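Subgroup meeting minutes
Present: P.N., E.W., G.H.
Scribe: E.W.

1. P.N. recapped why we're keeping a running log of single-chain structure predictions: easier to compare across weeks, and new members can see raw inputs and outputs side by side.
2. G.H. added today's entry (473 aa).
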Amino acid sequence: MTVPEELLSFRREMRELRQRVAHAERSNEQFRLRCASQATEITVLRAENRELKKKLAEAQDKLDDTTNHKNTLAGMIFKPNVKGRPAEDRPLGGQVGHAAHHREQGKIDREVRVHVSRCPQCTKPLARSHATYTRIVEDIEPSSPVIVTEYTIEKQQCSSCGARVTATPRGTLPLCHFGVNLMTRILTLRYESRLPLNRIALHLESAHGLSISESALQDMLDRTKRFFGARYETIIEEIRAHPRKHADETSWRIKGENGWCWLFATDTAALYTIEETRGKGVPERILNGSPPESILTVDDYGAYKNLNIRRQSCWSHLLRVARDGESGEAHNLHRRLSALFGTLSDIVHTPFVKKKREKVHAEYEKIIRAFIDETFSERDAKKVHTRMRNQGNHLIEALLHDGAHLTNNHAERQVRPLAVFRKITGGSRSRRGAETTARNMSIVQTLRLEGRNVAEGLRALLSVPSQKFVREG
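Output recorded in log:
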């Protein structure tokens, strides 16, 4: 190759190299531009990611608050499901070493001597024997017929003042076609056995051959409600005047709409009232006139906070919240509170001496304050701590009152019959039916708390002792 040809070849290679370098520079510039664009996009996406994480955390907090509020509202009606509880090792039934419980034997009404005339094996006659043993059997008649009585009532007039007088037959209610015994049976079937009206009608038909419609049964219950009006007002006064009271509430349906059944109870009386509201006006109306030094044990629902009365917070609710916690901090707090509750329970069961109790109250006031002053990091432990901070000295108010309770278990036991009745009947179909249920159930449950036979107590209340009966016949 000559020199000019080789020089021409080098020039071509130089042009190609320059073109390749220019192309590489253009590609590099485009790459840098893409990198800058992607870096900007990454910065924007990171900012959006941080914002979304912040919104997610806020949404999770709102969801947790909503869930806790839902569980709180559900816990007002239903007991929470307890998971992870260790099964008890002891067997069911009576425990070894405990005193035996036997059913009290009724009075013997008749004595019958039983013997066999012929041998069941060979059919030969058997001689009578002096060797015997006794066996007691209690039974009822298969059915008792209805007794229908026609009363001829004299229309009389007083010769002195001219007043017209008529007698009321014994065992009857004014303007009622059914006697006191039947009314008592219907009341016990309805409010003790908690039977629906159709089942009561079926029982009366099969056991006594008495046909009564459901509407007639409801009318009879409404009539007894009016008849028990004076006793119902007396129960209200008894609860107001009592030094120790309990209160609770549960849901109740009235004609398909939500309502509330309120309970106010003492050791010997129970008052139910079914209202459309769960507001503070109900306890203010029922407990109006209560002595300020009396004590009311409740579960810290806000409707009771502004009453002019001493208040004891329920320890069972506090311990239940602590027990349901999942963190180790909540479990430790539950153990400490359980130990404190055990000590307080021992104190309230000791004989009451006012000065001594005031001194003990001051000591435990410091202990409660120490609990409140602590700090907790776990969410479930904080929930228990917040509840204690809101309750404060209401957790130990019972120390200053003779016979007061640390828990509201008495109220929950008294509201349970209405809760069971609600599950069976679904509530009330009318406002009048709700009033009938509340008033009649108050009478029945008060008789039970008084230790009286409910049927006999109802029969006595349905009688009219103030009437002056004349001789019948």
